[in-house]
Amino acid sequence: MSHSTSPSSRRGPLTIALIGTRGVPARYGGFETCVEEVGRRLADRGHHVTVYCRNADADRPARYLGMDLVHLPALHQRTLETLSHTGLSVAHAVTHRPDAAVVFNCANAPFLPLLRAARVPFATHVDGLEWRRAKWGPTGQRYYKRAERMAVRWSDALIADAQGIADYYRETYAAPTDLIAYGAPVVDREAHRLPELDLRADGYHLVVARFEPENHVLEIVRGYSASKAELPLVVVGSAPYAQEYTDRIHQAADARVRFLGGVWDQELLDQLYAGARTYLHGHSVGGTNPSLLRAVGAGAATSAFDVGFNHEVLGRSGRFFRSSEDVAELVEDAERHPEEVAERGRLALEQARRYDWDDVTDRYEDLCRRLATSRATRRRGRRAEGTA
């Protein structure tokens, strides 16, 4: 996705609401990263951007990088946290009537009819195939399938961040989507922070992931522990709701595995990506993943779980695994052939140029203008009906 200057940026400002995430500053996942990167650029272009944030932090700024922040509470329970916060956010948004809204996560679909009733035009970012995640039992999986159908029915537009997601909605629901992937930040290949963790550049393998079964952290740790690799495996991440799975991961590790927990210092995390011999990416259901894009932007040679989303991002730079045995073979091979690893890193940087946040913002801006225009068209249509 090469950058282009959108003609829409030369027209008047819009009021845009970004709903359904934890908010900014981005500290959690793909949705939050997208909101921060796109929202700040939209604000720089003169649009009035409002981001709805969960108020977990005591320090709650009213503005951030040009965006207005609205802090609202949420129930601290896994199954209700997102919905409770989004319900309050939608209630606030319908009273302020933005020109366009983007709702992230189709799990929030029960509130979409409220936006529709208030004549707020909106797109739903449907993300990955949430019903495939192991953390949701049968009830949760049925809920997500129903939420998908509601998103298709009620949304003015759907956003997919990967071709595989777009294909799924077209094949399952005959529903078109706007394909807008995330951006891949190009990361400076610095290493001066690594000694803080007793690490050196090109001296370790890396995993960055929440500890959830569909991210295959357990399989990666098992495979590495069964390998003859000499470089340590550094694992960044945790799981707030999955202690049993976390325990299994720790039990599978040998003395070469180092668990760092969550790393929220972005400079340090970027240097971990850039300094890794290989980055091991086990995500399998979430569409285009920001951790993978950050690794690509850092020029990390990446071995990823063998699904279409990951092939789409990595192209020729990637190696792929399906089992712990595959992981063992990949890390051993990377240590035997460092010259091949270096070439894969160069190819990864070429891939990163396809994922540009300015281009992503162009696409969101154009979509929001279409949404705002659709509302104006509906209003004119109602006026015409009234005078007929």
From TrEMBL:
Descriptive protein name: Glycosyl transferase
InterPro entries: Glyco_trans_4-like_N (IPR028098)
Top-level taxonomic group: Bacteria
Pfam families cross-referenced by the UniProt entry: Glyco_trans_1_4, Glyco_trans_4_4
Phylogenetic placement of the source organism: Bacteria, Bacillati, Actinomycetota, Actinomycetes, Nakamurellales
Coiled-coil residue windows: none
UniProt domain Glycosyltransferase subfamily 4-like N-terminal: residue ranges: 29-177
Gene source species: Nakamurella endophytica
Keywords: Glycosyltransferase, Transferase
SUPFAM superfamilies assigned: UDP-Glycosyltransferase/glycogen phosphorylase
Sample GO molecular function, one term: glycosyltransferase activity
Signal peptide extent: none
